[in-house]
Amino acid sequence: MFNPFPVVLADYRRNRLLVCVTLALIALAVAIGVAVIAQERALRQGSARAADDFDLLVGAPGSPTQLVLTSVYLKLQSIPLVSGEVLARASTARGVRYAAPIAFGDSWQGYPVVGTIAGFASRGGQLPPAQGRLFARRGEAVIGARVPLALGAQIHPEHGMHRIDDEDEHHEHALTYTVVGRLPERHNVWDSAILVPVEDVWAVHELPAGHAAGDTHIGPPWDATRLPGMPAIAVKPDSVAAAYGLRGALRTNESMALFPAEVLNELYSTLGNVRDVMSVLAVASQVLVVVAVLMALLVGFLARARQFAVLRAIGAGSRYVFCVIWLEAGLLIAGGAAAGLVLGYGASWLLSAWLAPRMGFAMPVTLGTEELRLAAALAIAGLAIATLPGWLCLRRPIADGLRA
């Protein structure tokens, strides 16, 4: 006898339930570890890509995390306003491609209306509209890729009431935006944003528009004496050196300046600690599952001592019998590890698909070397440990096995 696989397959067919349960337990243990690692990486990569459009962020002194979550990920909440003087200073600073005010407060059917400048909408010319053009005057809007509106559509923000003061009376006028352009998909929360001239947002809140009376142009240059406060300023530097210089110059008693990556690194560090704990728990569960499976297999092999003794009695060599036992245990563990790798990837992909709309950015799921090492280490350890049942069975004399 030289080919042990017919005997192995026959044993698998006789013990289908045990084989299925064993594979499922090992696959589930591996899948937990793979899903944890892959999901943490997907969250890290997706959140980093979503912050790519914000090289330098300026806000009022306060919580950096709150500033990033509000401005970059549009998790809108009340934050202190940075003064208009900071915007005027940043707009004219050396090494600045654009300094864009970011103003919130309105929405349309759940889609946030964000006031800014055309330079930010196009990311300094790097993001031309996929359809139409950028807004060029007040009352025009550029929409993200996921906003369900057509070019030429008119929208009325939920809080878009602009007060008009006449000589004899005061009344409110419903502000209307006309969609003039659609931006290409960015796979982040800004795909669901409606970008409008910041002057309109300020006017809706009865604030000065940053320009002298009668001046109808939008965006910079600004009249520093007529600039209101704003939640954040997105600054696009000309170079890395300029970015560090601007960050230092804009860190004053009136404002804080930061790279979003600085805040994300702190969050990643926390996530990494949580992932490490969960990974240790996952590995511990894998070890327990493998030990339990091997114990069950060992009991099963010892109960089948007569079968193996018969094989040896009819001429099968001890190596052949050892290979049968080792393959039966080893293939189950290796197969369960491979199935767990696939199951963990699928679970992470489904979780990312469910989380992405809620987080506001795409989370690309990939299998990295860490997950592959996890599954491979379990498979190799299982193949090594699987020698134990074979060794124990072969230690019994043939005569004792035939009497079993």
TrEMBL record:
It is a multi-pass membrane protein. Residues 281-396 form the ABC3 transporter permease C-terminal domain. The chain crosses the membrane at residues 277-303, 324-352, 372-394. Keywords: Cell membrane, Membrane, Transmembrane, Transmembrane helix. It is found in: Cell membrane. The keyword Transmembrane helix applies. InterPro entries: ABC-4/HrtB_transporter, ABC3_permease_C. It comes from the Bacteria. This is ABC transporter permease. It comes from Uliginosibacterium paludis.
